[in-house]
């Protein structure tokens, strides 16, 4: 072990999470949980001050859904006023609330809230401990995979969750890229891939070229609110309607009944990947005032599921078209389509992807595990144990800047090769102006309302001078993780200037450090 500690590859998933390592023989290995499973359910059950994580937390979904958090990854870096968060809030059994800075947090009880970063940190810590049992020594670093279409706030939230868990992030790696890597695409020669990753919470598409060990991502797109969880939601909405008609009960506001229906529908959906009909069974859907429980049974056909989820499945096409356009190629210029993510097991999904891409996709045998394998291989590449592979990635979204409430000016364009650094120069507008405030936005629209605000900053302690004489050069750096870094220089003198952060998305640095200490002390 090096002084830095062991490193692992982690797929932090919406539904399940996976940790992988490279064994001494150079082969990737998925580590198993205490229950002997290769995936850890991304579920955290809060029982008073006790925390139960993974498979054992499933019991909370049935008995205490209001304090059992699943799908926290979908909430990372999301503002509470986002329309999709409003949709989630209506159907999740636990409560969502607005954080002081407008982010989405989870309310476990009156006066007790928790951030998605903390929930994800608990899952990451569980994976960290699994790896430490395997190695018999500390694990301190990780390559963590993320949806390719994650914005800067979501990427930073993921890094914050890792820091709280006691893990330094070597790199954030996009899930489609990791999947292609784990599939062995880096060993190919002159091959053009389209990777389609449909997991529990997101759909990501990446156009990737491999040639002579050069692994180049040409374009990444996706739908951040399209996944297996959304199919489950569509099934539940229709089953609630069926319960109203067949049983005469309206369970649409009953959190426990909704959660029991969701779990039963999810099990049936999985069965329907290989059969034409499955049973939805809930032993006790609701309890009457008399104490008698009402059972719910229903046969569910595959064609019903496909009909109910058809609007979602149609949303697979636009990101694919955008990825091809970003890569400047037609679908006939793709050599292989790779399917990743558990939701690609749905026959209707496979048919739609075949129709849109014009070819039968390649089905990866272990779609839930291949992403973590790719992350472990990236650890090995960065540590030098895999040679001859160069990974070139691109910015998922563009970055813009605005001053004094003016229009946004594009600084870094979408699909720029990362890391990259650009700059803009601003002049003072008043005599002896002491500061210049500016906003950083994610997006490329001139109108601020069409972009996402990442933060507001001020360059302070400017030298006294007539208006226009002080020129400030603001440097914007986008690193390989998609993290934004800023710097400012007085152009004439070359002096570095102080930057103050006036607004930011996500947790404050001090809170991340405090939470990391609390989690470590509580373990």
Structural class: alpha+beta
* Radius of gyration, CA atoms, in whole angstroms: 24 Å
State the CATH architecture of the largest domain. Answer: 2-Layer Sandwich
Q: Which band does the percent of strand residues land in?
A: 25-35%
* Counted beta strands: 29
Q: Which regions have little confidence, pLDDT < 50, spanning 5+ residues?
A: none
Q: How helical, in percent, are the residues?
A: 25-40%
Please count the helical segments. 13
For the largest beta-sheet, the strand count, sense and barrel status come to: 7 strands, mixed
How many domain regions? 3
CATH top level label of the largest domain: Alpha Beta
Q: What is the CATH third-level topology name of the largest domain?
A: Nucleotidyltransferase, domain 5
- Can you say what the CATH homologous superfamily of the largest domain is? ATPase, nucleotide binding domain
Mean pLDDT: 92
User: How do the strands line up in the largest sheet?
Assistant: 19-18-13-14-15-20-23
Cα distance spanning the termini: 23 Å
Name its key features.
about 525 residues; Nucleotidyltransferase, domain 5; Actin, Chain A, domain 4; Substrate Binding Domain Of DNAk, Chain A, domain 1; 3 domains; about 30% helix
Description:
This protein has 523 residues and is α+β, with helices and mostly antiparallel strands. The protein folds into 3 domains: 6-226 and 316-394, ATPase, nucleotide binding domain (Nucleotidyltransferase, domain 5, 2-Layer Sandwich), CATH 3.30.420; 228-311, Actin, Chain A, domain 4; 399-507, Substrate Binding Domain Of DNAk, Chain A, domain 1, CATH 2.60.34. The chain is 29% helix and 33% strand. The chain is built from 13 helices and 29 strands. The strands form 7 sheets. A 7-stranded mixed beta sheet has the order 19-18-13-14-15-20-23, sandwiched between helices. Strands 1, 2, 3, 4, 11 and 12 form a 6-stranded mixed beta sheet that branches. It has a 5-stranded antiparallel beta sheet with strand order 22-21-25-26-29, with no helix packed on it. A hairpin with a 4-residue loop joins strand 1 and strand 2 (16-22). Helix 6 (228-246) packs across helix 7. The longest helix is centred in the first third of the chain and has 20 residues, at 116-135. 47% of the residues are buried. The mean pLDDT is 92.
């Amino acid at each position: 072990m090096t002084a830095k500690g062991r490193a692992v590859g982690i797929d932090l998933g919406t539904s399940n999470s996976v940790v992988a390592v490279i064994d001494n023989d150079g082969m990737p290995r998925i580590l198993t949980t205490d229950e002997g499973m290769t995936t850890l359910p991304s579920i955290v059950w809060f029982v008073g001050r006790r925390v139960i994580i993974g498979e054992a937390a499933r019991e909370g979904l049935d008995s205490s859904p209001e304090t059992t958090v699943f799908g926290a990854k979908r909430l990372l870096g999301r503002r509470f006023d986002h329309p999709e968060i409003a949709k989630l809030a209506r159907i999740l059994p636990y409560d969502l609330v607005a954080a002081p800075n407008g982010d989405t947090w989870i309310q476990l009880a009156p006066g007790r809230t928790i951030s998605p970063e903390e929930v994800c940190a608990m899952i990451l810590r569980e994976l960290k401990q699994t790896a430490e049992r395997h190695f018999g020594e500390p694990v301190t670093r990780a390559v963590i995979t993320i949806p390719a279409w994650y914005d800067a706030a979501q990427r930073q939230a993921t890094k914050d969750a890792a820091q709280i868990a006691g893990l330094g992030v070597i790199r954030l790696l996009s899930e489609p890229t990791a999947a292609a890597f784990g599939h062995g695409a880096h060993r190919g020669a002159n091959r053009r891939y389209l990777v389609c990753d449909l997991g529990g919470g997101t759909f990501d598409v990446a156009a990737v070229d491999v040639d002579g060990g050069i692994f180049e991502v040409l374009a990444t797109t996706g739908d951040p609110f399209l996944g297996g969880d959304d199919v489950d939601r569509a099934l539940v909405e229709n089953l609630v309607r069926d319960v109203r008609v067949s049983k005469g009960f309206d369970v649409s506001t009953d959190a426990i009944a909704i959660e029991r229906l969701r779990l039963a529908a999810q099990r049936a959906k999985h069965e329907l990947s290989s059969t034409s009909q499955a049973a939805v069974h809930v032993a006790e859907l609701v309890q009457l005032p008399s104490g008698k429980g009402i059972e719910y049974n229903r046969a569910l056909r595959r064609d019903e599921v496909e009909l109910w989820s058809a609007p979602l499945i149609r949303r697979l096409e636009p990101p694919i078209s955008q990825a091809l356009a970003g890569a400047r190629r037609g679908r006939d210029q793709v050599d292989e389509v790779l399917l990743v993510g558990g939701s690609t097991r749905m026959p209707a999904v496979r048919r739609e992807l075949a129709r849109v891409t014009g070819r039968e996709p390649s089905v990866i045998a272990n779609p839930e595990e291949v992403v973590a394998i790719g992350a472990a291989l990236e650890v090995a590449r960065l540590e030098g144990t895999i040679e001859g592979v160069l990974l070139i990635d691109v910015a998922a979204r563009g970055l813009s800047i605005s001053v004094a409430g003016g229009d946004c000016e594009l600084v870094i364009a979408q699909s720029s090769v990362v890391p990259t650094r650009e700059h803009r120069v601003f002049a003072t507008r008043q005599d002896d102006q002491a500061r210049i405030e500016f906003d950083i936005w994610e997006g490329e629209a001139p109108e601020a309302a069409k972009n996402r605000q990442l933060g507001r900053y001020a360059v302070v302690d400017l030298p006294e001078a007539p208006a226009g004489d002080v020129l400030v050069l603001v440097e914007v750096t986008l690193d390989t993780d998609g993290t934004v870094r800023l710097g400012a220089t007085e152009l004439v003198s070359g002096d570095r200037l102080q930057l103050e952060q006036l607004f930011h998305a996500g947790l404050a640095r001090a809170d991340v450090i405090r939470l990391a200490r609390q989690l470590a002390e509580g373990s």
